Input
Amino acid sequence: MIKVLIIGPSLNSVGGVSNVQKKYMGILQKTLVSDGIKFFFHPTQIDGSKFKKLIYAIYSLIEFIKIIRKVNPDIIHAQTGIGMGFWRKSIFLMLSRRIKRKTILHLHADSKEYYQKLTPFKKTLFKKVINNIDFIFTVTLGNQEFLKTLLKNKSKIKMIENPIEVPKTSKIKTFDEKSLFLHMGELSDQKGIFDFLNLAKQCQEVGLNYEFVAAGKGNLELINEYVRQKKIKNFRYLGYLNEESKNSVLQKTKYLVLLTKFDQKPVVIQEALSNGIPCLVSNIGGIPEMIQNNSNGFIFSENEFENIINIILNLDSEAYTQLSSNAFLSSKKYNPITISLELKKIYKDLLDIR
Output
């Protein structure tokens, strides 16, 4: 039995890393348990104030030592973003190395821009940390190639997709005059909520009978004021959705709109594709690795957002159905079985198990 201790944000936290961890503890665990691989989970941070996070970090480190003794894991697999999350996980990973456990750093955020802004001392420390970890996973090819420039052993890094449950049967959609456009995730300017609302306003002005809905958390007062000022009548806020409600909304959605200004590989895009939903997205991070123009959606630079409505107006029902079919087919690579095979190989290689 290979025992893998996954460490990262609490499963109750809001955010992409937490959502991925839920997939590991759920669908991936079910897939890998028959191969003799068992996951355990230890939260290293929670949502809240800086003081609350600091107290919990100290508590988590003490509990980490206890769970090492209790579970005796073979591998510590740390899931994190960049910034303070990276430095927190580095403490856990360096401690794990000292007690002769194999270590994996799983980076869900881009490193290049962050690294370039570091002081010379912190750059040296960053390189020391990643070179002392046994293996590194990234979620984009771009981040993989950048980190290779900092690694002495360039073979100890691999891009791996985040897993989602992909339906066995195709979910091809057809377009109609009452189609639903969805924004799902953080409701902020950085995540593109106001560009989404502007698109709703454009469709309203040309008489398109489409409904625009948003799900997630954010500053609702600011959003409601923007909707009131712009006199947007085709927008509705759904709140923060649980898994069942989210699946219900995805079944009704005809386009996912995610005009984010920063991101890597949003899980919501994977979920949309698996439901046959073409995506209208920004040309940011690892998104171009997920969406191909005029195949399973459309990609726009920030100065092109005003042109989205032209795509919608000029796309006939046959072309939309082809987009939907391609969207579903492109989600196959996120299948847990495919990803579990990659994980199993890395885990066994680290422990020199043949």
